[in-house]
Amino acid sequence: MKKKLTLTIDKSVTEQAKQLAKREGKSVSEMVEEYLKKRTAEESGWKPKPGSRTSRLLGSIKLPEQYKNKSYKEIKEKEILEKYVS
């Protein structure tokens, strides 16, 4: 469920954010949400239990450069488009 949030940000920052969002094919809301998800995950301090399967797998997969800083949704969309549109 999405909820509306009102922010007060300097005009020059909002203009730059809009330009960046356009270049990345996202909305400013998506960019802010991604940032906040990342920061809140960092703040949670969650770490897998030592010796668990998750801890052994953590960091074992290296993504190709083209997928760095992309969400699962973005990667999936790109792969589907390549498979069915090309």
List the helices and strands and how they pair.
Elements (H helix, E strand, L loop, with lengths): L10 H14 L3 H17 L8 H5 L14 H14 L1
What does this structure look like?
This protein is mainly α. It has a domain at 13-44. It contains four helices and no strands. The chain is flat and about 50 Å long.
Query: Unreliable runs, pLDDT <50, ≥5 residues?
Result: none
Structure annotation, total helices: 4
Distance between the termini: 34 Å
Shape descriptor:
flat
Give the SSE order as H and E letters. HHHH
Query: Roughly what fraction of the amino acids lie in strands?
Result: under 5%
Q: Report on the biggest sheet.
A: none
Using DSSP, what is the number of strands? Answer: 0
Share in helix: 55-70%
What does the average pLDDT come to? 87
Radius of gyration: 17 Å
Structural class: mainly alpha
Summarize the structure.
With 86 residues, the chain is mainly α. The protein has a domain at 13-44.
Q: Which terms summarize this structure?
A:
86 residues, mainly alpha, 4 helices, 0% strand
